[in-house]
Each structure stands twice: as structure tokens, then as C-alpha cells.
Amino acid sequence: MKARITTIEREADGINSYFLASLDGQEMPPFEPGAHVDVELRPGLTRSYSLVNDPKERGYYEIAVHHAINSRGGSRHIHEMWNVGEVVEISAPKNNFPMNEDAAHTVLIAGGIGVTPMLPMIARLEELGRSWELHYVAGTPERAAYVDRLSAYPNARVVFDGIEGGVRLDLAKLCASAPGDAHLYCCGPGGMLDDFVALNKGRPADNVHIEYFSAETEVATDGGYSLELTRSGKTIQVAKGETMLDALLTAGVDIGFACSEGVCGTCQVAVLEGVPDHRDHFLTDEEKAANRSVMVCCSGSCSPRLVLDI
Ligand code: FES
Where does the FAD-binding FR-type domain start and stop, copy by copy (predicted)? Predict the structure, then answer.
């Protein structure tokens, strides 16, 4: 769908928020807390951004974009090229980070720009009158977005670990002290998420929720394997320097993708034979071990051929 940029606000150093509204003044499609939209920046460059606003606010979508220093084009493009009044192309909301609304207690843990999906969650939890707490760590006050908005909630704790006398988030203590039936959510850098997952191994998997906001694993481009596509009958070689997605697109295979970083799940394809070299952050460890699907944007192959159900 097309949407118009109505407002751009500076939220913190290197972080802007962008408000997107429909062209005809109609309400935006509904979304659930934790949802994101894919933004098409130009052909071949799409990025996913969490929706930040209260889902009850139907007149606009708000996204926040951190201008990453080593941006591969996504955040830099938005910060440099987007202006109020312009029309951009976005997907309908998708949700890979849904919230359990019936939890007895909800623990939200965010690092940096990972705070964005937590804001609509908080709005919904407040609306439902649920018990919740937020722990948000940022490097410095200047680099922390939405602190003002969060200051309305006594159960939202913000700490800064990059300043003199700063406080480190004690993830181990936090996870250990959460009630057994709590649902825990974490969005932040890869290391934080890895620690979070390891610390919560003892909890039911359904109670532990994570969302990567940027891929930290290297995309597989070693090539040297073939793809057999059962539906189209094609066989494609993946050359050195190419991703599986590159090879599929070059061969004219119509395949959906968005983040290109193994985060969003859009490019998931069923595997019928072979062992993928999983590089994504979308599949669970169990799903990766089962080798029944692969994220073609970033993963490679451990076997000389992969048979795919496309
Ligand atoms: S395009 Fe997002 S996981 Fe592959």
C-alpha cells in the first residue's frame, strides 16, 4: 500500500520517527502489538520496521529508524531521502513478535532501538489492565528514544550503560526473578538476545519471545551447491559470491523477500532434501535442526544440493 509521510520527528541521536498515513484519509489497517511493516525503499531494497504507535490510533503508523553507522543502505536512505509529504510503499502489518494478552505478568526487555515494539505492547497491556514491567537499556540518554513517553509509567525502567557511573542491565537477575508463568519478551542486539535465550532455557518455549532488529550473522555466499526446484523443475547453481536468493532471482524465480537479513521470515521455503546452512534469526533451534525449511535470503547449504518445494 502507499502511505504519505506526514511527520518526521527526532527521537534521539541518530533516531527519527516517521508518521505514515493513508493517501485518502482513511484509517490504516489494524495491527497487533509487536507487528512491523516492510518498507520498500527502492526496487531490491526493503526493510522491516516495528510499528510504534498505540494500535488504537488508527489514523497513522509510526515507525522509528536508527541511522546505523554501517548501514547497508536502508536506514541511511530513509534519514537522507525521506521528507514530509512524500509517498512511500509499505506492506500490510505482519507480526513475528505477537504478545500473549492473557499472561499473568509480562516482562519486556529492550536494548537500543529494540524498544520500538514494546511501546504498542505497553499501550495494550495498560488498556487491558495487565501486570507488566519494562527494562530498557541504552548507551547514553542522548541515544535513547522514547524515554519521555516511557516516563509516564513507573514500571518502565530505563538504564544507561555507556556513561560514567552507568548501570548495566542484569539480565540474569531479571530473568531469574520473573515469575514462572510470566511471558518474557526481548528485542535488542544479537548478543543480548543470545543471552536472553540461554537464560530462559528452563522456561516453556511459548513464554519466551524474541525479535531481532538487525542481523548479526554473516550471510552465506560461499556458493558451490545446486538448488533443485520441484514445482518448476528447474535446477540452479549457486555460485561463489551469491546468496541463494540472488541465484533464484537471477533464474527468474518469483520469490518474496523483505529484510534480506534472515529476520522477517518472508523468504521461508520448504526443504525436501539436503541440509541447509542456516544463518537466519527467524527459525528456532529445533526448526533449524529439523531442516524442513530455509530462509533463502541469508542461508547456504552444507550439502551439494538442496531440493526446495518451489
Ligand atoms: S527476507 Fe526476511 S528472512 Fe529472508
Answer: 1-100
Which has more pLDDT, 43 or 175? Answer: 175
- Looking up residue 290, the CATH number of its domain turns out to be 3.10.20.30
pLDDT computed for residue 69 by the predictor: 57
Which of 165, 184, 212 delimits the end of a domain? 212
CB 35 within 8 A of CB 51: yes
Q: Please say if the pLDDT value at position 70 is more than 70.
A: no
Residues 291, 275 contacting (CB under 8 angstroms): yes
- Residue 195, number of CB atoms within 10 A of its CB: 16
Number of domains observed in the structure of the chain: 3
pLDDT at 145 > cutoff 90: yes
Do residue 242 and residue 274 come from a single domain? Answer: yes
Same domain (yes/no): 205, 230: no
Ligand 1, CB within 6 Å, residue ranges: 257-260, 262-267, 280, 282, 295, 297
Distance in Å, CA 20 to ligand 1 centroid = 23
Would you state the pLDDT for residue 66?
Answer: 87
> Of the residues 211, 263, 299, which should be mutated to test ligand 1's pocket, given the most ligand atoms within 8 Å of the CB?
263
CA of 236 from ligand 1 middle (Å) equals 20
Distances (CA, A) of 78 to 15, 72, 259: 11, 12, 15
Range(s) of the domain holding residue 38: 2-90
Cα of 148 from ligand 1 centre, angstroms = 33
The alpha carbon of 280 and the centre of ligand 1 are apart by a number of angstroms equal to: 8
